[in-house]
Amino acid sequence: MMEDFFYGNADSGGDNVVLGCRGGVGVRRLFIGLVILLPFLLGSCGGGEKIPDVSNIQVEIQSRRLDRDLAALDTNKLVEGLRTLKGKYPDFLDFYLDTLMGFGVKGNYADTSQAIQLGLRGFLTQKDYKGVFDTVAKHFPDTKKEEAALVKGFQFMKYYYPDYRVPKVVYLVTGLANWGAFTFGSGTVGIGLDMFLGANYPFYKSVDLPDYMGRHFSPAYMPVAVFSAIYQDRYPFVMESRNLLDMIIQKGKEQYFVSKMLPYAPDSVRLAYTQKQIDWCKHNEAEVYNFFIRENLFYSKDWQRILRYVNEGPNSTGMPPQSPGNIGSWLGLQIVRSYMQKHPEMTLPQLLSQHEEPQVFLEESKYKPR
Q: What span, in angstroms and rounded, lies between the C-alpha atoms of 197 and 180?
C-alpha cells in the first residue's frame, strides 16, 4: 500500500536539491564472481532479454596507475619526476594537473613554478591527502578484479559496436574530488580509485558527500561508472528546452545501455539503489507512474520541479521516504525495456541514435505499469 504522503503535492515539503555527480563504486568479490560465474548459469538479463555470447571477442585493456606514479615521486625532485611522467602520460598529465586538480601548472615544470612547489607538493605531502593515497594503495594493491569486469563489459561493447576501440585506462587519485570515471579524448578512460573505497570510508563525509551517495562509492559500482561515462560521452544528457518525460527517457536509455554492457550486474548495483528501494519501485510501479501524471510533471519544463527526479537524492520529492532518489532513471529504464520488447528488430545503436519525440516513444513502447 502506498502511504498517504505519496498523494500529496509534489512541491510540498521537498528540498530543491540538484547534485552534479562527477563520479561519475566482500561486495567487490561478489560482483566479480557474478561476472565470471553467471554466464554459465543464466541466459537472460534482468529485462528478460537473451544475453549474447561474447566469449570469443578478444579484448585487452592497457592500464596505468598514475596514482602510484605520483605517490612514488621524490618531492624534493618534482621537476625531474614530472618530466619523466610527461613521457609516460604525454597528454593526460597536464589534463590531470590543470583541469582535474586545478594546480595551474600549464606545462611549466620549472623549480620556480609556484603551481608545482605549492600546489602539487602540498597535495603529495599534506597529511590528509597522503592518507588518501595510502588508503587507495591498501584497497587496490592491483586492479585485476576490477579489470575482469571491464574486460567483460568491453566484450559486450564490441559485440554491439564492432568498430569500437577499447580505451586505455588510467587510474588516479584526485583527493576525493568526486571524479569516479570520465572519458578523456577519444581513447582514454580515467578512474578515480579514491571514489571507490566503500560507503563506510569516513572521509567522504568530511568533503560533504552525502550518505545517499554511498552506493556510488562501492568497488562494485566502478564498471557502472565507467560505462556511464562512455555513454555520456557519446550521448550527452540534454536539459535545455526538454520536459521531464524527455529527460526520463534519456536516463532510461543510459540505464538500458549500461545494462547491455553489464548484463550480470543487478539493477540495484547499476542504479545505485538498495535492494529495498528496487523492491519498493517494483511494488509501486503503477503509483509512481500515476504520480507524474497526476502532478502534471511529465510535460513540465520547470527545472526547479523536475530535475530532482533525474538527479541523485535521499528520496524522490512528493513520494514516501522509502522511494529512491533519481527515480526517473528507474522509470525510464522500464519504458525503454518495454519499447525494445515491442521493437525486437531494433538494434542498440539504432535505439540510442534515434530522436523520436518522447510522447511518441512512450506510446510506441506500449508501457503498462504494473
A: 11
Residue 255 neighbours by CB under 8 Å, 6+ apart: 270, 271, 329, 330, 332, 333, 336
Q: Give tens-digit pLDDT for 3-20.
A: 443 444 444 333 332 223
Task: Label residue 110 left, alpha or beta by phi (over 0 means left) and psi (-120 to 50 means alpha).
Answer: beta
Higher per-residue confidence, 336 vs 28? 336
Compute the distance between CA of residue 105 and CA of residue 139 in angstroms, rounded to an integer: 30
Cα separation, 158 vs 151, whole angstroms = 11
Tens-place pLDDT, residues 51-100? 999 999 999 999 999 999 999 999 999 999 999 999 999 999 999 999 99
Question: Is the pTM higher than 0.85?
Answer: yes
Cα–Cα dist 10/297, whole Å: 9
pLDDT for position 20: 33
First and final C-alpha spacing in the chain = 14
- Residue type for position 68: R
Sheet holding 181-184, edge to edge: 63-65, 168-172, 188-192, 181-184
Beta strands at 181-184 and 188-192: parallel, antiparallel or unpaired: antiparallel
**Rg (the chain; Cα; Å):** 22
- The secondary structure of 2-31 as a DSSP string is --GGGGS-TTTT-------------HHHHH
Per the CB < 8 A criterion, the answer to whether 333 and 259 are in contact is yes
d(CA 66, CA 170): 6
What span, in angstroms and rounded, lies between the C-alpha atoms of 166 and 183?
12
Inform me whether the pLDDT recorded for 365 exceeds 90. Answer: yes
pLDDT attached to residue 112:
84
Category of 9 on φ-ψ map: left (φ > 0), alpha (ψ -120 to 50) or beta: beta
In whole angstroms, what is the distance from residue 231 CA to residue 224 CA?
10
